[in-house]
C-alpha cells in the first residue's frame, strides 16, 4: 500500500472513460481503495477517483468532516462508491468554488446540481443509494465526472473565475478556501 502519484491535467489518462468494476471483494480492489485513501490523505484532499492515480476503473472515495472551512455544510460520510450512477432530483444548479488534486493550485467556480440521488456499490459489491445536497452533492458530481474523463474546468461557465488559489484569496474573491477533490 502506498501513496501514489496523482496525474495532472494534460495527461490524456484523465480524459478517458473508465471501465466498470466487475470483481468485488478481492485483494486487487481492496489494494486500489487503500491506495486511494492514502493518496487522498497525503495530499489533503476530500475525495479522489481511481483514474487520478492512473487506474481506469469506476471507483471514487470521499469524506469531509464538519469543518470550519465549510461551517454551513454537514459532514460528508466516509464513502467508497463503485460503478456510481447519479440522478438529479431537480433542475436547480448552484455555483461554488472547486479545486482538484489533478489541477493543483487552481480554483474555479463550477455550476452543479444542488440535489441529487446517487447509487452504486461498496467494495464488497453491496448496492446502496443516497440523497445528497449542496456540498455533498458537489463532491459526488466532481468525483464521478473523473470517471467520464471530465475535469472541473470543462464544467465552468465563466473561465474568468479560474485562477490560482493564492491570487484569488489575496483578491478576496472567496471567503471559504475550498479543498481539492
Ligand atoms: Ni478532482
Explain what the structure shows.
This protein has 181 residues and is of the alpha+beta class. The protein has one domain (12-176): Alpha-Beta Complex (Peptide Deformylase), CATH 3.90.45.10. Helices cover 20% and strands 31% of the residues. It has helices at 27-42, 134-147, 165-170; strands at 47-49, 59-64, 76-88, 93-100, 103-113, 115-121, 127-133, 163-164. The protein has a five-stranded antiparallel β-sheet, with helices on both faces. Strands 4-5-8 form a three-stranded antiparallel β-sheet. It starts with 26 loop residues before the first helix and ends in an 11-residue tail after the last helix. The model has no long low-confidence stretch (mean pLDDT 93). The protein binds nickel (II) ion. Nickel (II) ion (NI) is lined by residues 100-102, 142, 146, 181.
Characteristic terms for this protein:
181 residues, alpha+beta, 3-stranded antiparallel β-sheet, 8 strands, binds nickel (II) ion
Q: Assign the CATH class.
A: Alpha Beta
Number of domains: 1
Helix content: 10-25%
Instruction: Please describe the biggest sheet, giving its number of strands, its sense, and whether it closes into a barrel.
Output: 5 strands, antiparallel
Strand order in the sheet with the most strands? 1-2-3-6-7
Number of DSSP strands? 8
Provide the list of bound ligands, each named once.
Answer: nickel (II) ion
List the helices and strands and how they pair.
Elements: H1 27-42, E1 47-49, E2 59-64, E3 76-88, E4 93-100, E5 103-113, E6 115-121, E7 127-133, H2 134-147, E8 163-164, H3 165-170
Antiparallel strand pairs: 1-2, 2-3, 3-6, 4-5, 5-8, 6-7
Residues 100-102, 142, 146, 181 line the site of nickel (II) ion.
